[in-house]
Structures are given as C-alpha cells and as structure tokens.
Amino acid sequence: MKKIVLSLIAMIGFAYASNAQNFGFHKGDVILEGTVGGSSHDNKNTETKTSQFNLQPKAGYFVSDKFVVGIAPGYGQSKTTNYSGSQDSYSKTNSLGVDLFGRYYFLEAGARFKFYSELDLGYSSTGGETSSGNITIKMNKTNTIGIHGGVGANYFVTNKIALGYQFSNIIGYSTSKVDTNGAKATNDFYVNLNNFSNFFSSGQFSLTFKL
Predict the structure, then answer these.
(1) What share of the chain is helix, strand, coil (3-state, %, to 5)?
(2) What single DSSP character describes residue 8?
(3) What is the pTM of this model?
(4) CB–CB of 50/79 below 8 Å?
(5) pLDDT tens, residue by residue, 84-138
(6) How many Cβ atoms are within 10 Å of 201's Cβ, its own excluded?
(7) Residues 41, 130, 72, CA angle at the centre, nearest 5°?
C-alpha cells in the first residue's frame, strides 16, 4: 500500500512538473500586453523642461499555435516648457491612434524564449497647442497611416507571464497629412537593417499575460 501511495505521489509530481514546463502559446489563447513609458528632462542652463508619456496596451488572439492577431490602441503626450521669461511658454502635442497587428512565432530558443516577427497597420491623429503668456494657439491635427514590420521575443517567467522585447521596426511606410484645406501628404519609407547591429538602441520592453 505504501508503495502504491508513493507511486501515485511521484506520478502526480511528474505530471505537475511537466505541466509547469509547458511554456508557450496555443491556438485559442488570448494575450494581454503593452508598453508604457515616460521621461522628464529639466535643463537649468536654457531654463527649459521637456516631459513625455506614452501608453499602448495590446490584446491578441491565437488563430493557431504560432500566429496571433490583435489590436493595440495608443496614446502619447509630450510638452516642452520655457520658463526663462516672466511668463512660461510651452509647446504641447497629443497623439491618439490604433494599430492592427499580426504576429508569427518562428523560433524557440530553449523552453522559455520565443522569437517572433510582427506586422502592424496603424492610424494616428496628432494635435496640440502652443502658448506664450496669455495667448494660446491650437495646432492643426496631423493624420497618419502607416505599416511597419519588426522582430521581437518573449521570455516566459511563468506559464502565464512573459517578458517581452520589441527589438526594432526593420521596415516601414507611412503617409501623413495635416487636416486643413490644400494640405499635401508627406510620405516616408525606411529600411533599418543597420538596427541588427544594436537592437537595444531603439527597442522597448513589455509584459505579456496569457489568459
């Protein structure tokens, strides 16, 4: 009887350990992740202060074990204030947008590292204002549509939580236009293959939660 009990305990422990090592994604999984960042810089020499904040949550659904599609709304704000005069003056911008993304996990390095490529199609609207003393001027909004491709990786800390790092956008195209009569579009295309030499100069960290 004692041997049977010990065998059952061993089997349960083995099953639990095996399950605990099952790091990764499967068809039907839902993930929540995102990035948040901010900074503040105060230059006493020029008497200017610059601050910025950005937030982009993401939600995705795995249509297969390796491919996930999702949506990522985003918000950003930046402000530069000059306090050298008798009255402060500032320039402020706000950006609101949304991305649709598709991500393919193409490589596993060990049990916990999962590498992916990602393609994003996004829209954003950026506006703001400038102020000097009692005069405030609203900026015309700029609308931008873009498509970007990059690579990244997840490292599973637990079965449900992974650290993420988006290395860089390798290729991208965007078109922007000021929301005013007679405005013409500005188009940009880039290929940043040189980022392979220093991913961390332009990447960002995130947290991924598997539901």
Answers:
(1) 15, 65, 20
(2) H
(3) 0.78
(4) yes
(5) 888 889 999 999 999 999 999 999 998 899 999 999 999 999 999 999 888 999 9
(6) 10
(7) 70
Cβ neighbours of residue 168 under 8 Å, at least 6 residues apart? 150, 151, 192, 195, 199, 201, 202, 203
Range 151-157, long-range pairs (CB < 8 A, 24+ positions): 151/115, 151/116, 151/117, 151/118, 152/115, 152/116, 152/118, 152/203, 153/113, 153/114, 153/115, 153/116, 154/113, 154/114, 154/116, 154/208, 155/112, 155/113, 155/114, 156/23, 156/24, 156/111, 156/112, 156/114
Tokens of 118: 């990602």
- DSSP assignment letter at 135: E
Residue 173 half-sphere exposure, CB side, CA atoms within 13 Å?
1
Residue in the structure block whose two tokens are 């220093």:
198
Tell me how many degrees the CA angle 68-73-79 measures, rounded to the nearest 5: 140
Tokens of 175: 């078109």
